[in-house]
Structures are given as structure tokens and as C-alpha cells.
Design goal:
Blueprint: E1 3-12, H1 16-23, H2 26-34, E2 38-44, E3 51-59, H3 62-67, H4 70-78, E4 81-92
Antiparallel strand pairs: 1-3, 1-4, 2-3
């Protein structure tokens, strides 16, 4: 089993507090847990309040599987996360 850390850097169309309310919701926490995804960090870009970041850790490919799931996409977009304004990087222990 290879653990992968996935970083999502993205634009938001709502305030960070509004976005975070959806991200921190019980529904999102349950979805992440069911998928075997650990949320390591979420934060607001210090220089640009229209950008946020989340860092996930899971088995290789799992976070991207969630990202590509149509049900998850609906929740992602409802939070104010601008889906097509996302930069994704993936990291593994070398």
C-alpha cells in the first residue's frame, strides 16, 4: 500500500467561511471517511482570499477517484469551490 498526499489548490466563489462550512460538514467528513481519505489541512491563501487549499492523504489514486466522482463533484461545487480552477499535485514518500 502506497500512501499518497494530494494537494488541491483552488479558487472559491464564496467566502472562505462559507466554503469551510461545507468542507467541515458531517456529510463531507462522512464521505471522506467512507473513502478512506484523511484530511490533513485546509486553509486560506494569505495573499489572495479567493484561493484555498486542502491536503488529503489516502492510498494511491483514492483522492483522485473521489475528485472524479459525480456525487462528490456536486458537493465540491456547492461549497463555492471552482472545480475547473483547481491545481492538483500528488506526492508519495520517496
Amino acid at each position: 500500500m502506497t500512501l499518497e498526499t494530494t494537494v488541491f489548490d483552488f479558487k472559491i466563489s464564496k467566502s472562505f467561511q462559507e466554503w469551510a462550512a461545507v468542507y467541515d460538514s458531517d456529510e463531507n467528513k462522512a464521505m471522506l471517511k467512507a473513502g478512506g481519505i484523511t484530511s490533513l489541512y485546509r486553509g486560506l491563501n494569505k495573499a489572495d482570499s479567493s484561493r484555498a487549499i486542502v491536503v488529503f492523504q489516502a492510498e494511491e489514486g483514492v483522492a483522485m477517484g473521489m475528485w472524479n466522482d459525480p456525487e462528490a463533484k456536486g458537493m465540491i461545487e456547492s461549497s463555492g469551490h471552482i472545480y475547473d480552477q483547481t491545481t492538483i499535485t500528488q506526492w508519495i514518500d520517496g
